[in-house]
Design goal:
By secondary structure, this protein is α/β, with parallel strands linked by helices. Among the domains are: 6-87, Probable tRNA modification gtpase trme, domain 1 (Gyrase A, domain 2), CATH 3.30.1360.120; 198-277 and 279-349, P-loop containing nucleotide triphosphate hydrolases (Rossmann fold). Helices cover 47% and strands 14% of the residues. It has helices spanning 6-13, 69-80, 92-99, 105-116, 120-130, 133-158, 167-196, 210-218, 261-276, 292-300, 339-349, 364-385, 390-408, 414-421; strands at 14-15, 26-33, 40-49, 60-64, 198-204, 236-242, 245-251, 279-285, 307-312, 329-330. The strands form two sheets. Strands 6-7-5-8-9-10 form a six-stranded mixed β-sheet, with helices on both faces. Helix 6 (133-158) packs antiparallel against helix 7, helix 6 (133-158) runs antiparallel to helix 13 and helix 12 (364-385) runs antiparallel to helix 13. It is flat, with a radius of gyration of 29 Å.
Length: 428
């Protein structure tokens, strides 16, 4: 609980604390009673944090009760019965922390990223943001631009009284900041794979080994494997982590003509999975070779969607493949030969191969603003090339500074804040 009613609510809900001190950063012991005040609902601990020494900068009380759906629900009901108490909105605790100066916006967003992290590497990147890495980098770049803006504006008003401006040095500094921003955007795109994960569709004709590959990469029997075509009747999903990148494997039903209504439904779901995938693995039977059915499946893959052609059954003699068909990986899903090559090729084709070298990863909102700032700086350079007066130079420079300020929260409207924190989970 956070806000002016937190202390009164705790005192009304929890009894039996005796003469324990209600000083800040103390833990008290007591019981939550029902409406009548005679029946104990749970034995609890109270953690007290008074303003401004709390996450939100307001009075905060945490009630630590026993786990279990019923116990927690009963305690929550007692709390919500108190005057002035309501459920928090998504991200409201973090939003209050930002508004009260306890967190900058980049750190608050890092809290959300840390909670949502699906791999250790994603958690490390979130901690880099929580430690202030993004805030520090953006503040530094913004201050460098402010220095250049100050020089320009001084020349607009007092050019006759000041030394001649070194326009070349100013443009070099603007280009250096722009280059840094573009690198951060590129790193952020790589880091996005670590943050959100990748959806990888396994596509192929029946009985080419899609389910065997799913089981191999998942390290467990996730799918039934038989020699009979059409065994996979539904879309199977498996969550794994490869080289720090969260991967959702989608084992699709084999695409073929069939009168089986259940298999037809599985094929329809496979079509949907194909449309939502980040990358497609087209698996063929390397022992049988390239077929017209494989070529038809290749045509089904949307244009521009990253894909790899994987020749499975490498433990058997290989058939001759036409010269115009490029096999990206040779694999034996049964014995594991070629698995490392497949993982490397998969991460490379979807742009996640260099993700582990990323030190800071901007989220989508931050990347969009950083790119907007870089584009504004490019326009500023164009104005300079046209040898327009100094005040024309400042227009796009101001726009870049504003965009960087919006990343850190120094130039935000209430509407933008509401939009940012609406994507947080409840209670954060």
């Amino acid at each position: 609980m956070s806000g002016p009613h937190a202390r009164a609510t705790a005192a009304a809900v929890v009894s039996g604390t005796g003469q324990q001190s209600w000083a800040s950063h103390r833990i008290l012991y007591g019981h939550v009673l029902d409406d009548s005040g005679t029946h104990r609902l749970d034995e609890v601990l109270l953690l007290l944090m008074w303003a401004p020494r709390s996450f939100t900068g307001e009075d905060v009380v945490e009630i630590h009760c026993h786990g279990g759906v019923i116990v927690v629900q009963q305690v929550l009901e007692r709390v919500l019965q108190q005057p002035g108490v309501r459920l928090a909105l998504p991200g409201e605790f973090s939003q209050r922390a930002v508004l009260n100066g306890r967190l900058d916006l980049t750190r608050a967003e890092a809290v959300s990223d840390l909670v949502a992290a699906r791999s250790r590497r994603a958690a490390e990147l979130a901690m880099a943001g929580l430690d202030g890495g993004i805030q520090e980098r953006m503040t530094t770049l913004r201050e460098r631009l402010l220095d250049q803006l100050t020089e320009l504006e001084a020349r607009v008003d007092f050019e006759e009284d000041l030394p001649r401006l070194d326009a070349s040095a100013l443009l070099l500094e603007i280009e250096a900041v722009r280059s840094d921003l573009l690198q951060l955007v590129m790193d952020g795109e790589r880091g996005a794979a670590l943050r959100r994960g990748l959806r990888v569709a396994l596509v192929g004709c029946p009985n080419v080994g899609k389910s065997s590959l799913l089981n191999r990469l998942s390290r467990r029997e996730r799918a039934i494997v038989t020699d009979r075509p059409g065994t996979t009747r539904d879309l199977l999903e498996s969550e794994i982590v490869l080289k720090g990148v969260p991967i959702t494997l989608l084992d699709t039903a084999g695409f073929r003509s069939t009168d089986d209504a259940v298999e037809q439904l599985g094929i329809a779901r496979s079509e949907q999975a194909l449309a939502s995938a980040d990358v497609v693995l087209l698996i063929i039977d390397g022992h049988q070779g390239w077929t017209t059915a494989d070529a038809a499946l290749l045509e089904r893959i949307p244009v521009g969607l990253p894909r790899l052609i994987v020749a499975n059954k490498g433990d058997l003699p290989s058939a001759v493949i036409p010269e115009d068909v490029v096999i990206d990986v040779q694999l034996s899903a049964l014995h594991g030969a070629g698995e490392d090559c497949l993982i490397h090729a998969l991460l490379q084709v979807c742009g996640a191969g260099e993700a582990n070298s990323v030190l800071l990863a901007l989220n989508e909102r931050q990347r969009d603003l950083a790119m907007a700032a870089a584009e504004a700086l490019a326009r500023s350079q164009e104005v300079a090339a046209q040898q327009l007066p100094w005040d024309f130079w400042t227009i796009d420079l101001r726009e870049a500074i504003r965009a960087l300020g919006e990343i850190t929260g120094e130039a935000l409207s209430e509407a933008v804040l509401d939009r940012v924190f609406s994507r947080f989970c409840i209670g954060k």
